[in-house]
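Could you join me in thinking about how sequence relates to backbone shape in a protein? We need material for that, and I hope you will provide a protein of your own picking. Once you have written the record down, we can walk along the chain together:

…
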Amino acid sequence: MLRARAVRSAALARRTMFAPVYGVARTYMMQPQSPRVAPARRLLAVLAPQRRTMFIQTESTPNADSLKFLPGCTVMDKGTAEFTDKRESMSSPLAKNLFALDGVTGVFYGPDFVSVNKDGDTPWSTIKPEIYSNMMEFFTAGHALFPDPNSSMAASDTTILDTDSEVVAMIKELLDTRVRPAIQEDGGDLEYRGFGEDTDGIVRVKLKGSCRGCDSSTVTLKAGIERMLMHYVPEVKGVEQVLGEEETVALDELAKLEERLQKHREERDRGFSP
């Protein structure tokens, strides 16, 4: 019996050794696994962590220096949040990581998207892979956007208050239900900053996200928001944009530059005069 068992083992070893030559190695197996081994391997397969994958899409916006990234999951449960510099980004780990990339000038959280703004000198081909990598790692790990719940910066500017007049309540409702969804489709948002009900009848709003610094923002204000509000609310006489500190400084510097150029042109013209 021992000899017969040895012969069978040698024959099995020969078949296993030569099987790869004929391309049928997987059909020849060594002796069956111990019944205790297979359940253990099945248990390890169940307990092994599952790899989570994510497909992040991008959408262009009217602003050439802003892109809309859609991670396929909820970003903000309520409201929106915007970061315009590194100091503001410290309250959110994702915004902080994105601002660490060269060329990033703004980050905006929407309901299901993240808009990233860059400077005009940095091409998207340079920073887009890094943005993908940061977002992929952040969302697949399930990190919280705001470790401190009190710093979520959720927008509540269009919440209708008991102290609001009927006109203000109507303006807020139109901005929240008609204007905001359309602007968020372009990767931006707006913030209601007040209405001159007893003075000039001007609705003041602040554009955010991809709308910040966009060349078509004036068209959005006048041909879109202003026309609609004036149609539904006769008390509204116009819509004006409220600029942030950064935008105000930029406009001041631009005005100073134009003044210097104008002065230089005048001096040049006087030099050529007879």
